[in-house]
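quick one, 414 residues, struct below
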Amino acid sequence: MSSPNGTDPGSAGGATDPFATSGSTATASHRLLEVIDLHTGFKTPRGRVRAVDGVSLTLERGRTLGIVGESGSGKTVLSRSIMGLLPKRNVVREGTVLYEGIDLVTAPAEQVRDLWGAEMAMIFQDPMTSLNPVQRLGAQITEGMRYHLGMDRKTATSNALALLREVGIPEPDRRLKQYPHELSGGMRQRVMIAVALACGPKLVFADEPTTALDVTVQAQILNLLQRQQRERAMAMILVTHDLGVVAGRTDEIAVMYAGQVVEQAPTAQLFANVRMPYTEALLQSIPVLDAPSHSRLQAIPGRPPDLVNPPPGCRFAPRCRYVQERCLQELPPLVEAEPGHWYRCWFPVGSGAPVTVHIGAGEVPADPIPAAVAGDFGGGEQVLPAGGAGGAGGDGDAGRGDPALGGDGSEGVV
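---
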């Protein structure tokens, strides 16, 4: 198995691969995707932005990996870096991305392009801008089948009708002749799923697939993805800022912060035994549905670091309630709390480190707040309100209570 040592400055020497799928007897033959020490940077006048900084992970066939973090943590760039969907200029991509033994970083562009749609596909977070506004939906769904599978127009159209029925689109014959603007947001997202599934890919990236959808439609879309994955035996990478979304729908979760994976574990294990303070903060920022009226939301103070000049120590240290002097000076390595559970922290949750609460520019001692309980997230079909992690800088009311993030300094209430 691969190891994140070497170019990753925060890796522990001699460690086994912390991102092999846990709880299985995985062998190389079962691996669909293996990412080893992946770096993606964007060249700017200020310097290189380290959007993805030394990420390693492994995904087996038929399993689901959730990638979680607030906006700007590198989730979407990681997904696009794996697929190779990056601009051709001012981008540096280094490392190894093995898809069924093919290194997508060094493979010719033509070979990678042949994999898009046929072997791997992406469901983008905004179907209104991802679908072609001047092309009928039928042409967009059948395009991949005709290109990759060599189908004639009649066969491809028949398959497109079947796909629309599978994803729950009413009157599929009429929808094939319509344009994206004639459909609702939820129906457009279902069409995007149909486009992604058209050629029967083995791996699907779902990048914030429920963004801008109301809670009821969110549940329908997530249930649809889960059902299609099960029926087609696909592997899936589910990208979201909401831990509530991945709680009952993934086999494993990787938490990203400032371009790095800071904690990864099997889903149930992560919720039962959080070790990274950032993961704990994300959990505590989610509104609890049975909380008393006007309960204060818990927000993470401060903002993510500058990825052109990241701090020398732990990247979460300036916002961490457990921060110590060592955190500001040394980047912690990935260490294993228990088999399959890895985290990047000098003073993990539960280690007895002193707790501080940030108030304005200063800090005062405080009693530790209770750790989030996995049971708060309910079963696999429960979906929390949109923007549930917004208080932690997600896609909801990001930074509303933090003046450093453009807020008014007030704390939100529910």
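The chain is about 25% helix and 20% strand.
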